[in-house]
Every structure is written in structure tokens, then in C-alpha cells.
Amino acid sequence: AAGVIQSPRHLIKEKRETATLKCYPIPRHDTVYWYQQGPGQDPQFLISFYEKMQSDKGSIPDRFSAQQFSDYHSELNMSSLELGDSALYFCASSLGRAGLSSYNEQFFGPGTRLTVL
Amino acid sequence: AQKVTQAQTEISVVEKEDVTLDCVYETRDTTYYLFWYKQPPSGELVFLIRRNSFDEQNEISGRYSWNFQKSTSSFNFTITASQVVDSAVYFCAGSGGGADGLTFGKGTHLIIQP
Q: In terms of C-beta distances under 8 Å and separation of at least 24 residues, what long-range contacts does B64-73 make, across chains too?
């Protein structure tokens, strides 16, 4: 079965540079989520999109922005990179914004490992 | 706001032992959703199970079983006859639903020794 695709898988940047991470959700999934996982930490929710509109916002720094495109893929743009941005960035996707009677689980991509030097 | 507590930082057992991972979820929402994810050393996050707050049925899937008790806000996960391949970090997570992000616990590092 098709899974969430993230690119690149590894990225090395210098401080103050910019980075763009891409996420391609599972086919037919219309909701995308971004998470940041620092070394030895739990994943922290950054932001989500449903039908190309921002849906929920977590602890996303102002230096970061994201969007979802018409084909449902999403990009996370990170500017003025800091050493502390070094982390594993996960994208997840789910099918639809379900109602109260159900909730669709999020399936995670393999992650992009960002190293800021 | 939700809070997920996994009190066990690390558990080490010998292969074939049963092991239970604890999770406590706190929220003011009357409807919420709970999940368990597995993160093996390779780093990916693997979905294991979802439970709705209004469904207290316990579930068994092979060697895995889950016990959800709304009265104590606990959503515990048991592996029966553990195997070395079960070694991983296990995360409990919760959400209010919709397109809300997940709130993860700190994770329990499970080590299964041969």
C-alpha cells in the first residue's frame, strides 16, 4: 500500500540558511500534519491542513511556514535556521476531517532528518 | 489542552515475558481519541491502535491488547510473549478530533532481551 512520502530524507544546512521539506500524502488523504521530533524527545505538533486550509496550529516557530497545494502535497518552509532546529521532521496524513462519531488515524511518513551546522 | 503521561521511561524484560505500558490522558474534552504508536530504532512512527473516548471495549490483536478505562483516564497497552523485535519506543497520543494535531506522551523505551 502507498505510504506518505517525504523528501528529502536527509538535509544538512548551515545556520541562518533556509530549508524546504516536502510531503506527499497517501492517495485520497486530504489532511496533512507536520511534527518535529528532537533527539530523545516526543514528536511535537507544528501545524495541520485540511483541504488546503490551515486547520490546527501547534508550536510552530514564526520562522516556519507551511502550505498545502491543490494536489494535497504540503511543504514546510524554514528560514533563519538555528542549531536547535536540528530534528526529525515528520509529515502525517489522514482521510478527511471526521465528525464526532469517528476520527481517522494519522499515518506518518519516514521523516526528514534536518541537521543544522 | 490535553496532557498525556507515560510514567515509565524505560522497561527492560526478557523475551517471552508479558509487559504492560501505561498511559494516562487528561483533557477537558468530552470526546477524544487515543492512539498508540511504535517507533523502532529505524525511526519511523508506526500506528498500532486508535480508541474513541465513548468506546470502552478492550481489544486484542495477536500478541497486543489494549485496556481503556475512562474512569481512570488510562489507556494501557500489553504485549504478550514479548519478542526481541518488539524493542522500540512506544508513544501514547491523544487528540480532540477533526484535524487536530496529536499530543504525544514522552514515550516508553521498551527493551526486550534475548
A: B66/B36, B68/B34, B72/B24, B73/B24, B73/B25, B73/B26
Q: By CA distance, what is B54's nearest residue in A?
A: A101
Give yes or no for a contact between A66 and A81, defined as CB atoms under 8 angstroms apart.
no
- Of B33, B45, B106, Cβ closest to residue A108: B45
> How far is the alpha carbon of A45 from chain B, nearest alpha carbon, in Å?
6
Task: Report the pLDDT value the prediction gives residue A100, as an integer from 0 to 100.
Answer: 42
Say yes or no: B50 contacts chain A, CB-CB below 8 A. Answer: yes
The reply to whether residue B104 touches residue A42, judged by beta carbons under 8 angstroms, is yes
Per residue in B41-69, pLDDT (tens digit) is 999 999 998 888 887 777 888 899 989 98
| Segment (H or E) for B28 | none
Q: Which residue does chain A place closest to B31, by CA atoms? A: A100
Helix H or strand E encompassing A30: none
**Cβ neighbours around A112 below 10 Å, total:** 21
Among A34, A54, A36, CA closest to A44 = A36
Distance to chain B for A16, nearest Cα, Å? 27
| Cell numbers describing residue A36 | 518535529
